[in-house]
Amino acid sequence: MSSATIGAPYIRLDGRAKVTGAAKYAAEFKVSNVAQGVIVTSTIANGKITRIDTTAAESAPGVVTILTPSNAPRLPKNGEAGVNPPAGRRLQLLQTADVHYNNQPIAVVVAESLEEAYLAAALITVRYQVDAPKLDFEAGFAEAHPGKNKVPPMLSEGNVPEGFESAEVRVDQVYTTPMENHNPMEPHATIAAWDGEMLTLHDSTQYIFGVKQSVAKTLGIPNDNVRVLCPFTGGGFGSKGSTWSHVVLAAMAAKVAKRPVKISLARSQMFGPVGGRPQTHQHITLGAKHDGTLTAIRHDCYSHTSMIEDFVEPSSSATRMLYEAPVITTSQKLVPLAVGTPTFQRAPGEATGTFALEVAMDELAEQVKMDPIELRLKNYAEADPTSHKPFSGKHLRECYKQGAATFGWSKRQSAPRSQREGHLLIGHGMATATYPANRSQAEAAVRFEANGRVTVISGTQDLGTGTYTIMAQVAAATLGMPIDLVDAELGDTKMPQGPVSGGSQTAASVTPAVQAAAQQAVLKLVTLEIGNQASPFHNLQPDELDFKGGKLFRKAAPESGIAFTEVVKRNNNQPVEAKGSAEPSESTEEFSQHSWGAVFAEVSVDETLGTARVRRLTAVYDVGTLLNERTAKSQLIGGLVWATGLVLEEETHIDKVTGRPVNNNLAEYHVPVNLDLGDIDVAALNIPDKNFEPLGARGVGEIGITGAAAAIANAIYNAVGKRVRELPITPDKLMA
Ligand code: MOS
């Protein structure tokens, strides 16, 4: 068996466990004496519960307990005992009778079985005082506010009036994207079990340490009293990045029931109580010279939030770094609506923002009669145009070039409606993809086991992305061992701490920690040998030794190796373990850190039916080092698939009167299936970005959904000659 290599396309280590059902997801853990919790949600969007009648439900078969705002345990107030959970979340924890959105949790029924819990839940009757809910997005623009958030509400670079006055041509348009909900295959689920004051949570999450802290703070108990386990997450995409009410409700219900309680959200409860992508209204103005040189870019974005919390979809953020222009001005404003608090959804900001900006660039290319790639090259940003920092790595030119060649871009007809196959109009479009490179502090441990195997451990998460595999791969490659000898463990807050698996940062955060831990573990072996009289390395200096292929050897005599397993044997067969941690260095701050890509689309539009289909997508990415070619490309392909849904299908419809999400199921909430997709060809340049992190990898979870919606929308315009600026591009919009 040869040593593992970085980048090799190993199949997922957890693949077999997943397809055979051996992989346990949160709701599947066997916890003895567990009772079933079902959340009851509101049927109004604004008002107060005046009466909640649980009499019939309480005498229903199998009912253990019912929590309502009248009897639920009182939680410490904000500020008490260090308690400071997000204000809005508290309001969904049965602490008041107020209702702030339709589908808000208002009761929890706990019963012996799921069926009994559902039956009892159906017997609960609720009376409300109903107030008019704010549900009109556009009507809220006048009172929109910047929100308490990290995104600056208004940022301007350069002399704005001058930038637009010197423009010879302009694009001035509004682009909109709808409310969306993530809907991972595995709905959110939590099992809460108390042992005295100690709380164990099996939770489906992107952030075990975040759940631990949020739950401890909300309940007002010490952080150390909470343990969170999550070995597998059946998709998250941002929806499982923060702690939603069902997690705390499960803990509260378990306390009252005096036995473990399991809560799995129904699919319909994935619409509201656990967030989704906010709708956006994006006004973009581009000013340019006749030769395509941008003189000014303006991007003003409204997105909705809930009545109880602020969440910003920062659609204008990519506009701040994607193209060179003397004037770049952006703003973000929030419109509170009586809906569940929105949240991060795959490439929050960039997914929706690059749709708007990259369609606007296509409109500009047409006005100045330039090839869309030429226009982008004309305004290529050599350094970050607003932070003025150099990029840690940028090979976007190569992406355009390679993508255009693979796709056959030179054969594109620039005039709309130039290509036809019977009743089908054919079109081609392209756009730029981009997503920030993020990285946080992470810890890992590497242990040489007595049986000759190696275990690599980190309290991180695998959302289906391949974290297990790259952890083992990087550990094995660092040790010079075959990957088959390495086991990976993750998803337990008893393990060394990992960051949130959000912002595409898991790979770039955790694998440097794994590398450091592997090096520390070898150093421990070295120390043991040097200190051991029975060792031929006794009393050598550490720097006289090196390792390779699972062996320690003297640099002076490379053939004189001692296998790692021998060292462990000599150590009374005691496993040898070391921790390592890694964090961004200060020099990282000197760079603007982003990933890049070029996406090309071919579509067909049925002239009579108005149906658009994506025939093929070609995308070339500059995402730094690929740690594992197979799992990395799977991530990129997944992003492109989702982009196809974003541009053609996805939309959560809210009833204008009741505020109820009406298509709250996977039959009516449309996502792409295989028949909706064409050929997807993904390539990555695989150029390491060592300015960003030691292995040079920038993370691939989100960039795939960026730019692609615009490439497809631009191809649709090229096919039919009608510009649809309102997503999703459904047949009705193409017919009108
Ligand atoms: Mo991602 S939307 O940062 O989980």
Describe the structure.
α8 packs across α9 (372-378) and α14 packs across α15 (708-720). The chain has a 7-stranded mixed β-sheet with strand order 3-5-1-12-9-10-11, sandwiched between helices. The radius of gyration is 27 Å and the shape is globular. A hairpin with a 2-residue loop joins β9 (189-195) and β10. The protein contains 16 helices and 27 strands. It has 736 residues and is α+β, with helices and mostly antiparallel strands. It has 3 domains: 15-22 and 440-583, Aldehyde Oxidoreductase, domain 4 (2-Layer Sandwich); 31-131 and 185-235 and 240-270, Aldehyde oxidase/xanthine dehydrogenase, molybdopterin binding domain (Aldehyde Oxidoreductase, domain 4, 2-Layer Sandwich), CATH 3.30.365.10; 280-438 and 589-735, Aldehyde Oxidoreductase, domain 4, CATH 3.30.365.10. The structure holds dioxothiomolybdenum(VI) ion (MOS). Dioxothiomolybdenum(VI) ion binds at residues 206, 236-238, 241, 344-346, 348, 502-503.
CATH superfamily of the largest domain, please? Aldehyde oxidase/xanthine dehydrogenase, molybdopterin binding domain
Question: Could you say which small molecules are bound to this protein?
Answer: dioxothiomolybdenum(VI) ion
Would you identify the regions where 5 or more consecutive residues have pLDDT less than 50? none
Second CATH tier, the architecture of the largest domain: 2-Layer Sandwich
What would the principal axes of the Cα set say about the shape?
Answer: globular
Distance between the termini: 62 Å
Question: What portion of residues belong to β-strands?
Answer: 25-35%
**What proportion of the residues is helical, as a percent range?**
10-25%
Any idea of the CATH topology of the largest domain? Aldehyde Oxidoreductase, domain 4
What is the count of distinct domains? 3
Q: Describe the biggest sheet?
A: 7 strands, mixed
Top-tier CATH class of the largest domain: Alpha Beta
